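SAMPLE LOG
Freezer: B-3
Tube label: C17
Construct: single chain, 135 aa
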Amino acid sequence: MIWCYRAVKNPAARRKWVAFISIVVAVTFGYGAYRILIGDSAIRVALLLAIFSLFILLYTIIALGKPRYYFLDDEFVIYKPFKTRLGDVTGYSVDEKRLLIKLKKKGILGVKTLYFEKIEDLKEAEKWLKKKLRS
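STRUCTURE (predicted):
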């Protein structure tokens, strides 16, 4: 089973990306304030922050709109570059409101959350996981 989602269409993924970008922006502006306090030119720092803000804005637009693909097969859940062996999955929980499935698994690395754009894809993946994890 293959499906695609974009972070802008999924509330949970959009919130995750916006939080990440907000942290990057806060750290950057904090560093800019620090540079001004230690005596660097305020105009130079403001110019650099404006240019950096433009790049961050463009990165945010690209990251939120980029299609991401998941692939479920008989042995793995694959989301490049991560993959999780279905044998390591002990269970899952479905959140239809946020359009996601959280996998409970052994280990640290791998796919832990499956995001969806459409409720139909979520229902189909839930049915597929239920069938595969029983056997």
